[in-house]
Specification:
With about 425 residues, the protein is mostly helical. It is about 75% helix and about 0% strand. Helix 2 packs antiparallel against helix 3 (about 55-80) and helix 11 (about 235-265) packs parallel to helix 15. Mean pLDDT is about 85; it is low at about 1-10 and about 210-220.
Length: about 425
């Protein structure tokens, strides 16, 4: 990646982009806290209160991510041509309805049906539309803006997931589900008025600054790469492999961590481990947004994937409350940044114009890794133990780190386009 060498000549002091960042932050709080992180809590509740096996709910979680990946790719053209607020609003309604229905699930077909619809809602108001907004509004300060907005993912896990866990423990899943559905809908509704679809819609430019023309350098706007070219580059293919492995192991371990704590210690410890994970994720992501401006983004990503493997090894052997919480905290430090780096790498390598389609296509492929993670670790738990499943997850994450280290040139040239 090369930094922009343009200089700023016009500044909009009332730049609305930071309002957009705040809106995306809140969107991610709801979507992550009651969906991404919430899936670990629902797995624990569905197996404990509803009598489903760990494998069956883990398979439903895997299916959830597959459906969300497909839905994300299908909505990408809509995001490019329609006001993004309609897409996000529709997703909020669908997600809230799914949360409401989750409380009455009592058979395997109902479980899979609810999770499939829930996945569509998750895609419509999730990371693809949210990060698309950030890439449109920010070019030179994208990493900082994205780190702030995506911190909502961790804050959601730290707050709403904990609330969901407490409500489910005290009221049961059936009585907690309607409350969680209303909370989700209200939070997303608050974000929509200031979620303007582009700087042009507010009569401004990205970053609130007009870059001065330079004859010797291309700005990030001019560096946009067509979708058909981008997905055929060696760089794109290698980083997809890296994220399939890194995110598959990450989501697999995350989806099981509440149950891991419950089995080894007790339910409050499992909830505390999830909160510790989310807490360090917040801090680490904000630090990462600054650090990544000063070093190679691919070296940083490779190091994080390898560190994630170390955290999973630690979780595999943690057998006290202190060990479990500290290991989860280390795991959270890697989660916070890897989630942020994927859209940041795509935008930096391929530009803004084709971002929704390129990122959504990558997400679709990565989703199969994400989907396989919960099922693989859940199956290994039932077949052996959580020690075995987390050690396997650590190896998979290390493989992702190796792929990132070998990714090579991020900028498409004739020799890097395959086919």
């Amino acid at each position: 990646m090369t930094a922009s060498t343009t200089t700023s000549v016009t500044t909009n002091k009332r730049f609305a982009g930071w309002w957009v960042v705040g809106s995306v932050f809140l969107l991610f709080v709801a979507n992550s806290g009651l969906t991404f992180y919430g899936l670990a809590v629902y797995l624990d509740a569905l197996t404990d209160q509803q009598g489903f096996s760990t494998t069956s709910v883990s398979l439903a979680t895997s299916m959830f991510f597959v459906v969300s990946g497909i839905a994300g790719r299908l909505i990408a053209p809509l995001i490019e041509t329609r006001d993004i607020r309609w897409v996000i609003g529709a997703g909020a309604v669908i997600s809230s309805g799914s949360l409401l229905a989750l409380g009455s699930v009592d058979t395997i077909p109902k479980l899979y049906g609810v999770y499939a619809v829930f996945a569509i809602g998750f895609a419509l108001c999730g990371i693809v539309p949210g990060t698309t907004l950030i890439t449109r509004w920010f070019h030179t300060r994208r990493s900082v803006a994205l780190s702030v907005a995506s911190t909502g993912l961790s804050v959601g896990g730290l707050t709403l997931t904990k609330v969901a866990s407490s409500l489910i423990d005290t009221r049961g899943l059936d009585n907690a589900a309607p409350i969680l559905a209303i909370v989700f809908l209200i939070i997303v509704a608050i974000t929509l008025p200031t979620m303007w679809p582009s700087p042009e819609s507010r009569g401004t430019v990205p970053d609130g600054v007009t870059p001065a023309p330079r004859a010797d350098a291309l700005t990030q706007v001019a560096a946009s790469v067509d979708y058909d070219i981008a997905i055929r580059t060696r760089f794109f293919m290698v980083i997809v492999v890296g994220f399939v492995l890194a995110m598959g192991s990450q989501v697999g371990a995350l989806s099981q961590i509440a149950k891991l704590g419950t089995e080894r210690i007790d339910r409050p410890t499992g909830a505390l481990a999830l909160s510790a994970l989310a807490g360090t994720s917040v801090i680490a992501r904000l630090i990462g947004g600054v650090v990544v401006e000063k070093m190679s983004i691919m070296k940083f990503t490779a190091a994080l994937a390898l560190l994630q493997g170390v955290a999973l090894v630690s979780l595999a052997y943690a057998d006290t409350s202190t060990e479990l919480v500290l290991s989860a905290a280390l795991f959270g430090a890697t989660i916070g940044n890897l989630l942020m780096l994927q859209p940041l790498i795509v935008a930096a390598a391929f530009g803004v114009a084709g971002y929704p389609k390129i990122f959504a296509f990558m997400q679709l492929i990565v989703t199969f890794g994400i989907a396989g993670g919960p099922f693989l670790l859940g199956y290994l738990h039932d077949a052996a133990s959580y020690q075995t499943s987390y050690l396997v997850g650590a190896g998979v994450s290390a493989g992702g780190g190796i792929a990132f280290a070998l990714s090579g040139n991020a900028h498409p040239t004739p020799e890097t386009v395959v086919g």
